[in-house]
Amino acid sequence: VSGGGEAARLAAVLRGLGGSARGHDVAIGIGDDAAVLVPPPGQRLVATVDMVLEGQHFHRRGPAAAALRDIGWRALAVNLSDIAAMGALPRFALASLGLPDDMTPADVEALCAGMAALATAHDVAVVGGNLARTSGGLIVDITVLGWAEHPVARAGARAGDRLCVTGRLGAAAAGLALLSREPATHGALGRAADSVLAAQRRPEPRVREGLALGAMARAGLVHAMCDVSDGLALDLSRLCGDALGAVVWRDRLPIPPEVSAVADALSADAGTWALHGGEDYELLCAVDPAALEEVRNAVQRSAGVPLHTIGEFTAGPGQLRLAARPGDDGRPLAAAGWDPFR
Amino acid sequence: VSGGGEAARLAAVLRGLGGSARGHDVAIGIGDDAAVLVPPPGQRLVATVDMVLEGQHFHRRGPAAAALRDIGWRALAVNLSDIAAMGALPRFALASLGLPDDMTPADVEALCAGMAALATAHDVAVVGGNLARTSGGLIVDITVLGWAEHPVARAGARAGDRLCVTGRLGAAAAGLALLSREPATHGALGRAADSVLAAQRRPEPRVREGLALGAMARAGLVHAMCDVSDGLALDLSRLCGDALGAVVWRDRLPIPPEVSAVADALSADAGTWALHGGEDYELLCAVDPAALEEVRNAVQRSAGVPLHTIGEFTAGPGQLRLAARPGDDGRPLAAAGWDPFR
Q1: Spatial distance between the Cα atoms of A25 and B73, rounded to a whole number of angstroms
Q2: What ipTM was predicted for this assembly?
Q3: Stretch 130-149 of chain A: residues touching chain B, C-beta under 8 Å
């Protein structure tokens, strides 16, 4: 972005992003010093922020380049996932963009269009924004606000609770691995490649599933929840906290056939992707063992993805183990995953 | 920032920032997927985000280098100013940091200490945070949330309303001009230099004054408000909207002696700084002419800075004029100020 006259056009792009944002609970949207929003009676405010940076979380150039629409989608998706992990309803977003000189207003429109597509799908109103010029790479920092009567914390799992996860694991990591290969590899893998690349580029935040699990938490049947952003093992270690351990059953991990197909083609290990790959944006939770069926049915009724039982919480601090199947003793599992400063 | 082992230390810095944040209205602070906050009954939620970038809004090196503590302070201050401009009470902050490899954990601590100092002064709880590594310059993006029963919008000024501003104008621009000169110039100017440099480096958001003006707005005596971030003329044009103009009285501009002294020393025009310099973070508002005294007294009672009457709103769209004094006709005033894409 360059030139003085473009500030107005860019501001219009941002206002356009907020254009569909008026609702009964948006008193003032984009364009004032701050947004003004109306809290529903009896609800708590849930707030999260997550920044994605060119070169760290995405690329605009080179073999692993992402489309601007996908970058916008993804930046919002990771925040919606955090709100979903609280069992809360996401409702508002504020977008802060740092724009390099080489981006045209049309580029910014594409970025915002991706964000708007996901926002519209989840009825999230973009109520604030901020544009800055940067001499570095593209910066997309998004704050999402939501509501919940009884948000679900990370803390609260008990020894004996079942460890459950929504959807599938390893697809985003498979997509990331594939991105660094020649497009010829993608072609040979056909629909398996399309599927894992889509998981990497356009993660679907588990908002409906989070609300269903939040309702189960209110009923005392789900005890703790987080999302899988940095890898199952690392996020699980956070769910365990200082007082618990957990065992993961390898044969129960929901690794879909397309992930296995990509792993075979790249001579990689699908299990490692599922355990340590990250960016799955599934929900991981501790479920009362007596209520497994009820909780699974509740997630099913949300019209979301299935809930899988993949292990259990154990007494004793900080010990993660990987077993072949329920009943096996297994071996220690490292709490390794995505580290932003690695 | 580099090396895998530092992620934990950095996370501790961020948690430290949130350490003093527990209050009756913070159910969950930093460390979960999202913060959980308790809205006070009958209040509206006010939300803003503002990003500051190395090379654009501050420098860490060279003659105009800012201290990390000041960078942290300033990044929060500009957001508190936006909340103050709504007549709202700032209460929570979420900080998103993009850290270059050359920053040590001690550097990050200094940055966070500046932020924490201002947060503590205004009883703002840091409830969320996000750390990323960047190959570009330092990124500080802050979201602030606050509460107000009746927030004051930018829109609402009426022809005949008096134009009022808190505090002083031009000091931050004087400080910016001074930053690019040799330190010898600072020395010769003595306390005048200290004063304008402090205004540039550690702006004081007008939170108390904003709350007092918000109370006057509820009583129908203040009709519109914004902060002066991009320069008096440009921010005034936004307050006028499409339907109004305004005249500014040159002799009433609160340009303090230290700003005039610096302008003289640098052969610059203090009036230009006051009108177009920006970064003053004062509050600009439209006041019912019959209630001027009452509104001024209310701001005085807030233990804040004085409120000055510097002009009035006129009928007719988009026309800004600069007059020597009340009663003069004056000349057109350009709505020029800070443009992030200039």
Answers
A1: 32
A2: 0.93
A3: 130-137, 139, 141, 143, 145-146, 148
